Amino acid sequence: MFTILLSVIALLPLSQSLSTVTPACAHCQPPTFPPGGRVLYLPHCVNGKSLNYCDAVCTGEKTSSTNQGSCENCEAKCGMVFLPVCSESQEIIYPNMCQAVCAGVTPVSCTGLQTVIPGKTKLPPSHQLPERLQNFGVEEERLDGGDEDV
């Protein structure tokens, strides 16, 4: 029994070296939005192919600022305005519709996002805001005399 246990302990480091998955790949944590939410699309151009961050790490090629961005240069074509859309599976979130289309996916509206997206999220009526925000800016306007046509 002791020899079997000793054999297993001796072979364990060898079994890890036979793995085709690199430690960097095995421990890759993709960026998410919001934190802990959906995988954020963060492309890297590796060997002429656009791959999301962990997929790029798992190729074994170096990922850095030099290969960050899609091979198709979607970031320059589409801009970096953050109006997120999701993959049909709702697993990956793309910065905007143009970048999703450029990445070759059919974008859909994200469901269940628990965050404020400027331009997309409806704000509560002012009477439901905290007291300190209900009259925000009114005091400065009164002191300045309001908007006057000069």
Instruction: Walk across the major sheet and give the strand order.
Output: 1-2-6-5
Helix content: 25-40%
Order of helices and strands: HHEEEEHHEEHHH
| Relative strand content | 5-15%
Summing up helix and strand content along with how strands pair, one would put the structural category as alpha+beta
Main β-sheet, in a few words? 4 strands, mixed
Q: What would your notes on this structure say?
A:
It is a single chain. This protein has about 150 residues and is an alpha+beta fold. Helices cover about 30% and strands about 10% of the residues. The chain has seven helices and six strands; from the N terminus they run ααββββααββααα. It has helices spanning about 1-15, 25, 55-60, 75-80, 95-100, 130-135, 140-145, and strands at about 30-35, 40, 45, 50, 85, 90-95. The strands form two sheets. It has a four-stranded mixed beta sheet. A two-stranded antiparallel sheet has the order 3-4. Strand 5 (about 85) and strand 6 form a beta hairpin. The longest helix is centred in the first third of the chain and has 16 residues, at about 1-15. The protein is extended and about 75 Å long. The model has no long low-confidence stretch (mean pLDDT about 80).
